[in-house]
Amino acid sequence: MDFKRIRHALAVAEEKSFARAADKVNLSQPALSRSIQTLEEELGVLLFDRDNRNVNVTSVGAVFLARAKKLAYEMRGLERDMALLRSGDGGSVAFGAGPFPMASVVPRMTDLLRERHPGLRISITTNNWRQLLTQLRGEQLEFFIADTRDIEPAPDITITPLFRQHGALLVRTGHPLLDRPLRLDDLLDYGLASVTLPERVRPLVHRIFGIPQDAALPVALQCDQIPLLVHATVNSDLVLLATQAAVTEALADGRLAMLDVRGLSDVSTDVGIVQLFGRTMSPGAVVAIEVLREVAEQTVATVVHGRQQP
């Protein structure tokens, strides 16, 4: 069975059109039709029902194409692995990062990668974990680092725990909340600035603020870009819900100050590395993860040390 013909059948199933599929695989439409007919003759079954307008997968075709899709995935992985073995280096890496890791560990990680591997081409995507997981499964990323608590275990991915970052409530220097004893009721007078909260964190935040679980949180600004959230908080009376590790620079230079709120130790992010199961990593991805682990250890140690200071 010619694997090219299997790829042709997958293209027809995806496009639901011989004309569009022919463009996708760079064949003429007659040549694609002959390829599909030959495959059907080899299998002894019809894969597609055809009429003048539509192409539909038959019930037998659906079974075949489901297996063929897995085979195509494995074949792409095999071709990729062999190319890496031939080249001996793998001069690029594409990975993703959620909002908090992007702010806390990725900048230093990138500095070290550029310093130690100046020839490595680095592509970084920042987004929420749902979008990153879609891109990972689409083979656009080799791995991503994000809060993994809401990610359901699946046979096609591997999740490696990396570190935990605890939550903090922060305001600009000179904020009215810093001038008087803090009460939780006072926080409700000011809007929250926050990333998209993980589902498992929302009940904890409701509890801390004393808000019924079925009521909306007072989120005035929601964004998955930490620099924008910091900018907005520094220039307004918003209260920022973030992790201390994600805003160390703004804390160090005095732009932000932490509020002393009980219960925030329960609000945390469990950051981990997510990658495709069984997929051989490129040399670039291997060194990127090594540096990532190094920076993560340094970042966690710095935050813990900072908390212990009087």
Automatic annotation (TrEMBL):
<feature type="domain" description="HTH lysR-type">
    <location>
        <begin position="1"/>
        <end position="58"/>
    </location>
</feature>
<dbReference type="Pfam" id="PF03466">
    <property type="entry name" value="LysR_substrate"/>
</dbReference>
<dbReference type="InterPro" id="IPR005119">
    <property type="entry name" value="LysR_subst-bd"/>
</dbReference>
<keyword id="KW-0805">Transcription regulation</keyword>
<comment type="similarity">
    <text>Belongs to the LysR transcriptional regulatory family.</text>
</comment>
<dbReference type="GO" id="GO:0003677">
    <property type="term" value="F:DNA binding"/>
</dbReference>
<dbReference type="InterPro" id="IPR000847">
    <property type="entry name" value="LysR_HTH_N"/>
</dbReference>
<dbReference type="InterPro" id="IPR036390">
    <property type="entry name" value="WH_DNA-bd_sf"/>
</dbReference>
<dbReference type="GO" id="GO:0003700">
    <property type="term" value="F:DNA-binding transcription factor activity"/>
</dbReference>
<dbReference type="InterPro" id="IPR036388">
    <property type="entry name" value="WH-like_DNA-bd_sf"/>
</dbReference>
<keyword id="KW-0238">DNA-binding</keyword>
<dbReference type="GO" id="GO:0005829">
    <property type="term" value="C:cytosol"/>
</dbReference>
<dbReference type="InterPro" id="IPR050950">
    <property type="entry name" value="HTH-type_LysR_regulators"/>
</dbReference>
<dbReference type="Pfam" id="PF00126">
    <property type="entry name" value="HTH_1"/>
</dbReference>
<protein>
    <submittedName>
        <fullName>LysR family transcriptional regulator</fullName>
    </submittedName>
</protein>
<keyword id="KW-0804">Transcription</keyword>
